[in-house]
Amino acid sequence: MDMDNEILVDVKEVSRYYGQLAALESISFTMRKGEVLGFLGPNGAGKTTTMQVITGNLAPTAGAITIAGHDLLEDPRAAKGAIGYLPEQPPVYKELTVDEYLDYCAALNCIDRDKRTSARNASKEKCGLTEVGRRLIGNLSKGFQQRVGLAQAIIHMPPVVILDEPTVGLDPIQIREIRKLIRELGKDHSVILSTHILPEVQTICDRVQIINKGQLILSDTIDGLQKQLKSASITVAFLNMPHLDILNDIPGVNGVEEASPGYWRILFKPEQDPTDTLVKLSVENKWALRELRPGRVSLEEVFLQLTTSEHTETKTDKEIKTKKETKTEIAAGKDN
Ligand code: ATP
Predict the structure, then answer these.
(1) What is the domain extent for residue 154?
(2) Is the pTM of this model over 0.85?
(3) Are residues 178 and 200 in the same domain?
(4) 16 C-beta closer than 6 A to ligand 1
(5) What is the CATH number of the domain that holds 285?
(6) Which of 196, 183, 154, 164 is nearest to 87 (CA)?
(7) Which of 49, 50, 168, 328 to mutate to test the pocket of ligand 1 (most atoms within 8 A of CB)?
(8) Is residue 57 scored above 80 in pLDDT?
(9) 18 C-alpha vs ligand 1 centroid, how far in Å?
(10) Whose CA is nearest to atom 26 of ligand 1?
């Protein structure tokens, strides 16, 4: 096996129901070694549920999850040991100093007693905390408290690091610093980053997965995402499918991809709609066009919500979040 290409997170057809509500509906994806994978979706899309399920803090209703080769349900201890997790509400104890707290986390993660100090110092250094070891966490700024949250997630050097909306509630300067830090962490760890902020995945991630209403609706590279953002789309089906190059060569067309078996999504520059040309060519060349419909409305709607959210984040967003504390308290209990 090519170790650089190793699959570290393998999620297969995972669903999670809350009563009748499908918070996650049969989602499948993989993350490979060395990737920073963005998990992007509007509020309530199912991001936190996904993060809790893949970190073993919430049982899936169906499906299988493998972390670094360990089945999460069959061998939870090994699987969880390969993960560092920063939940939406950082599990930091404000009455402890940074050093006391990180020592406690080192013990929780079963790091040998004689290696705890060096593990603590290494994670502090990586997260820019070397100068504040003796400060009480409660007296640090929100940005520094978030650094402490990142330090506890990496203290045991896990191959996989999972961060749930790590920049929510920070000011713009702190946001920039935390994003930079996450990019740095991405050099030593493979990272899954959940966010509802489109520019956040554009600046930090290699690949993106978009989730909406519990379903994955897009999986692409950042370059692919940029193309999707700039394009309008139509979906077509022909009885006699022409060669892809012919479709790609129609003026205005940015790309052609298979939407589902037999259905092709044509991405195009919004100011250069190729529909008329396409219909004309189909008749001339007997491609037998049997379906033509406008592109995925849901994806466009989601983009609209994602694009507006960075600037419209209001106090009410944060108030909604604090209601979820009971949920994240469960998430904070790491060793079970
Ligand atoms: P946010 O950005 O607001 O954190 P999210 O994408 O993380 O949103 P989730 O918190 O995963 O979304 O929620 C997905 C769906 O599941 C939502 O409709 C939510 O209301 C519902 N949900 C989440 N937790 C529970 C729960 N404990 N009981 C019932 N429904 C829940």
Answers:
(1) 3-227
(2) no
(3) yes
(4) no
(5) 3.30.70.100
(6) 164
(7) 49
(8) yes
(9) 9
(10) 18
DSSP H or E stretch at residue 28:
strand 21-32
Give me the mean pLDDT over the 214-221 stretch: 90
pLDDT at 1 over 80: no
What tokens appear for 101 in the block?
A: 């707290």
Can you spell out the DSSP letters for 91-153?
---TTSBHHHHHHHHHHHTT--GGGHHHHHHHHHHHTT-GGGTTSBGGGS-HHHHHHHHHHHH
Q: Give residue 51 CA to ligand 1 midpoint distance, Å.
A: 11
Pocket flag, ligand 1, residue 330 (CB < 6 Å)? no
Same-domain status, 206 and 287: no
Confidence class for position 308, pLDDT limits 50, 70, 90: low
CATH number at residue 20: 3.40.50.300
In the chain, how many domains are there?
Answer: 2
List the residue whose alpha carbon is closest to atom 19 of ligand 1.
44
Q: 47 CA to middle of ligand 1, Å?
A: 8
157-213, pLDDT tens digit by residue?
999 999 999 999 999 999 999 999 999 999 999 999 999 998 899 999 999 999 999
Give every CB contact of residue 120 below 8 A, 6+ residues apart in sequence: 99, 102, 103, 106, 155
Kindly state whether residues 281 and 219 are assigned to the same domain: no
Q: So what's the pLDDT on residue 319?
A: 41
